[in-house]
Amino acid sequence: MKNNHGSLSVSGSISLRVDGHCDTVAALKNGKAKHIDLENIENFTDLQFFAIYIKNENDTNNAVQENEEYYSYYREILEKYEKIVPILSAKDINELKIGQVGSILAMENSEPLATDSEAIFRFIDKGYRSFGITWSNDNSFGGGANTDTGLKDLGRNLLRAMNKLPVLVDLAHMNKKSFFDSMEILEKPPIVTHGCCYSLCAHRRNLTDDAMKLLAGAKGLFGITFVDSFLKEGGNATIDRIVDHIIYAADIMGLKNVCLGSDFDGANLPYDMCGQKDIGKLKEQMLKRDFSNDEIDDIMGNNLKNYLEKILEC
Q1: Distance in angstroms (rounded) separating the CA atoms of residues 311 and 96
Q2: pTM for the complete prediction?
């Protein structure tokens, strides 16, 4: 890939080189962005997932309209910041130049896909490459973390279609039943872009040990997030608590199946982290906890980069 200081090709980088989730598009549009500075983003990442969150979970028409508004704003971001380059294929990743940041466009809550069976293809044409099937409540496809609803028939059909498409299937936000229903259908490795370990923090959004084992068995990835309330019950977590979850997930799943999904601009962070500029502190804590530079590089970039290349290679 690139050969500038701090890139994926440089062992011991202090930067989060691949980040599996942020809500910066919506935060910027709503005047609330504070964790990612797009003017300087290339100093901290090579590949950034930009999620477009859809608030409407049970109203397909309004979900489509909401999506279009945020998508239009995302296109404005790309026009303003030419260094942010859409990633549509594995080839695009390896063709990034020095100073460029690859953007993986993600849909968080796939309700806009419920209009008809061809919708998925239209959104792929728009540049979406990652799809979170649910958000926190029920939608047309299944149940989110706030519910006990499993995967619905429309969700089963969507996943069967995605099995044959060059897209990431993101199972973040699903409840346990819809998660396990999905795993029975998927034929390629899925990802949970942002969550933490239930055994360390009993939050409904976190993955249980059996879910992590199943995900690892499918060669999927688990993105440990920086959301304060997911890291520690009652919140008030520290960066070192992120390391606790990384270690726990790596022990259960294997280090190669763990990555990071910050949720920058979408949640409260540990009290000793202000945003992307503080990512070096996470590496410092990992070094203190006996991670090698190579292991840190894998978790902060290589694992998710390699996964992306595999899923997007067709």
Answers
A1: 18
A2: 0.95
